[in-house]
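Render this sequence as a predicted structure.
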Amino acid sequence: MRLLKKLTMTNKIVPTVIMIIMSFNFHSCSKDPEPLGMDRVWYTGDELRMDGYYYYDYPTSKPEYREIWFLYTNGIAQQAGAQLSELDAREQSFRDGSFYARTNDRRNGWGVFQVQNNMIKINHWRQQAGSGRWITRSDIGEITSKESFMVGGKAFQFKQFYPKLDSICRFIP
C-alpha cells in the first residue's frame, strides 16, 4: 500500500516539476523582441530634411561601407547599408521596392526616432549575435544642421533621394 501511495505521489510531482522546468527554459530562450522603449511620434519639425536619407561612410572599412538611415515624418526610422562598390545597385533596390520587399518581414533595422532640442534619438531593433533575440539599440546624437547629425562619433550627411522606401512597418503600430 505504501508503495502504491509513493508511486501515485511521484507520478503527480514529477510531471509538475518537469512542466515548471520546461516553462523556465522556454521563457529564457524566447525570441520575443524587446520593446522599442519609445513611442512613434509624427515628426513635424524642421531641424532635419525628410526628402532623402542620411548616411555615414566608414573611412577605414574594407570593403568600404555606407550606413544609411531613412527617417520618415510618421516617426519611423529604417537602417540600411551597402558596400560603396554596390551603392548604385542598392539605391536601385530602394527605388524599385525590392529592398523593402526583402526587409519588411524582419525587425532588423526598423525603429522609431524623435527630435527634441536639436537632439535626435533613434531606437531600433538588432538581432543579438548568437542568441537570435531581438534587442533594442538606442542611438542618441546631436543635430548639427538640417543636413547632418552626429551619433556615436559618426557624422551622418544628407543625400536627397526619391522615391524613399515605404515606411509602413508591420512591427510598429
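Summary. The helical segments are 2-28, 87-96, 98-103. The mean pLDDT is 85.
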